[in-house]
């Protein structure tokens, strides 16, 4: 099927795909022959609430609107009115069709699964004949269902009913998770509130009162407010980089998870990019604007992590990073001391560097690069530099990755200098008590006794910015060549 089906022309004609998040159906998508055909039932809160029953027939979704939905009871015959064929991709669509568009309103994947044709004819022939009998294997529906064209009433009307089989029931009972999406578990209200207006003017956010940091009673609303306010300072560091999300939907005392691929239900105005990985691709979010940052916060993404290279030159990082991670025998004073020693080593090599607290336990030291050296060479350079630091105090510093072999020493981690590796974004919140923030510093601040890795939090970081400004403001204009540093080249030869 090189061209989209003729039957999709009407579907496409009725829709403006710049204004609606629905799939255009112009991309070729032929389901595998070996796979069982699929069905989906959308719950659709358009001008009238109804269900849309769609079954796969020759690569498209033949569809009916069923105002009263489905039943377990063979005695209940519900009206089904044929509607436009929909593209195969529509089966996974869930979201909100904006006002002013065809079918405007919230759409839920109410049920989905596979079906078996119980008739001897092909499914296309059954549709033509006006008599369909299928065994549905969904999350909610199970068993035989029939769709029959009637001669009663006006126009093309069908009836849908449960067939008499062991799955039928004469009593009125509800379906499992009747009010929840079979795809995301969300209710209609949750789907609606998860959508933010495309231009970011009206930000519709959900569960703002939910407490994400129980100790300090910090809510999701507080996290959203923080990211809204910090966005102008933070976004230049995120621009055109793939983001890995560290999400905590149930707060920081429950286990969070790292998410590389954007969720299917993310609205289509969220910028995203496919990046090849072993055995496939990852579909990363790119956060270039406040609306996206706020949307991620609404998804309880407490900490965005960033690639060290930018999208247009993925193999050539513009950041070389040293992660100073204290061991059991090091306090933060020792981390600060190591940071200052590393700063001096970098200075002697002719390299400008920047430092931030991670908001967790350690420090990140970053050298901005001119994107002319590939990851492997950058990592080699970083290791050579780190070796110089370790040589100054091997009793307290180590390059040993294995925890057991570190013996409590401070670990100089250069392993992040690699393709697809990420580090916490500057000014991101960490999932620690009190919501500490990864905070860019002036080098001189490392000499302050009072400075701790978690000194700055969402509560005091704005006061700090007002007082000292953003110490990393110039980082994007300080790109340097590793190859031009004569001393660096000498060091690599050793
Ligand atoms: Mn509909």
Overview of this protein structure:
- This protein is an alpha+beta fold.
- It folds into two domains: 6-193, no CATH class; 211-493, DNA primase, PRIM domain (Alpha-Beta Complex).
- It is 20% helix and 27% strand.
- It contains ten helices and 23 strands.
- Strands 1-2-3-4-9-8-7-6 form an eight-stranded antiparallel β-barrel. Strands 12, 13, 14, 15, 16 and 22 form a six-stranded antiparallel beta sheet that branches. It has a six-stranded mixed beta sheet with strand order 20-21-17-19-18-23, covered by helices on one side.
- A hairpin with a 4-residue loop joins strand 10 and strand 11 (218-219).
- The chain is elongated and about 90 Å long.
- The termini are far apart.
- The structure holds manganese (II) ion.
- Residues 44, 46, 50, 52, 65, 103 line the site of manganese (II) ion.
Task: Lay out the secondary structure.
Layout: H1 9-13, E1 38-45, E2 49-57, E3 60-66, E4 78-87, E5 95-97, E6 105-117, H2 123-129, E7 131-138, E8 142-149, E9 158-162, H3 188-193, E10 211-213, E11 218-219, H4 220-238, E12 242-247, E13 257-259, E14 272-277, E15 280-286, H5 290-298, E16 301-307, E17 319-325, H6 332-348, E18 354-357, E19 363-368, H7 375-392, E20 397-398, H8 403-406, E21 410-413, E22 422-424, E23 439-441, H9 461-468, H10 486-493
The structure holds manganese (II) ion.
List keywords for this structure.
single chain, 2 domains, eight-stranded antiparallel beta barrel, binds manganese (II) ion, alpha+beta, elongated, 494 residues, DNA primase, PRIM domain
């Amino acid at each position: 099927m090189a061209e989209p089906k003729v039957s999709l022309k009407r579907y496409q004609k009725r829709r403006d795909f710049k204004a609606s998040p629905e799939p255009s159906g112009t991309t070729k998508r032929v389901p595998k022959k070996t796979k069982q055909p699929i069905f989906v039932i959308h719950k659709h809160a358009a001008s009238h609430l109804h269900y849309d029953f769609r079954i796969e027939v020759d690569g498209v979704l033949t569809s009916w609107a069923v105002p009263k939905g489905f039943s377990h009871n063979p005695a209940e015959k519900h009206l089904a009115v044929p509607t436009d064929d929909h593209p195969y991709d529509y089966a996974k669509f869930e979201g909100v069709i904006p006002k002013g568009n065809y079918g405007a309103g919230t759409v839920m994947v109410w049920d989905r699964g596979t079906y078996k044709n119980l008739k001897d004819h092909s499914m296309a022939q059954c549709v033509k004949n006006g008599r369909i009998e299928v065994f549905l294997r969904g999350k909610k529906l199970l068993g035989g269902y029939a769709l029959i064209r009637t001669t009663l009433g006006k126009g093309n009307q069908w009836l849908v009913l449960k067939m008499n089989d062991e799955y039928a029931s004469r009593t009125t009972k509800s379906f499992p998770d009747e009010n929840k999406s079979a795809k995301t578990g969300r209710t209609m209200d949750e789907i609606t509130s998860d959508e933010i207006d495309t231009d970011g003017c009206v930000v519709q956010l959900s569960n703002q009162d939910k407490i994400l940091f129980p100790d300090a009673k910090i809510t999701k609303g507080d996290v959203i407010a923080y990211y809204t306010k910090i966005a102008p300072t933070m976004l230049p560091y995120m621009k055109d980089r793939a983001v890995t999300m560290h999400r905590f939907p149930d707060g920081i005392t429950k286990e969070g998870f790292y998410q590389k691929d954007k969720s299917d239900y993310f609205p289509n105005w969220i910028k995203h990019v496919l990046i090849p990985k072993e055995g496939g691709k990852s579909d990363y979010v790119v956060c270039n604007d406040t609306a996206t940052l706020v949307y991620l916060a609404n998804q309880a993404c407490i900490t965005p992590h960033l690639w060290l290279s930018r999208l247009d030159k993925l193999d050539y990082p513009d950041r070389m990073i040293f992660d100073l991670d204290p061991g059991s025998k090091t306090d933060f004073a020792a981390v600060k001391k190591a940071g200052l020693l590393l700063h001096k080593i970098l200075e002697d090599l002719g390299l400008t560097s920047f430092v931030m607290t991670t908001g967790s336990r350690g420090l990140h030291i970053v050298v901005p690069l001119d994107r002319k050296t590939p990851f492997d060479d950058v990592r080699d350079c970083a290791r050579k530099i780190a070796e110089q630091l370790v040589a100054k105090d091997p009793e307290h510093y180590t390059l040993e990755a294995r925890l057991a072999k570190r013996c409590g020493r401070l670990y100089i981690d250069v392993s992040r200098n690699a393709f697809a590796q990420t580090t916490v974004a500057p000014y991101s919140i960490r999932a620690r008590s009190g919501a500490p923030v990864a905070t860019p510093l002036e080098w001189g601040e490392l000499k302050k006794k009072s400075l701790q890795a978690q000194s700055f939090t969402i509560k005091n970081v704005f006061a700090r910015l007002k007082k000292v400004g953003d110490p990393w403001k110039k980082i994007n204009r300080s790109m340097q060549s590793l190859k031009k540093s004569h001393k660096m080249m000498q060091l690599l030869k050793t």
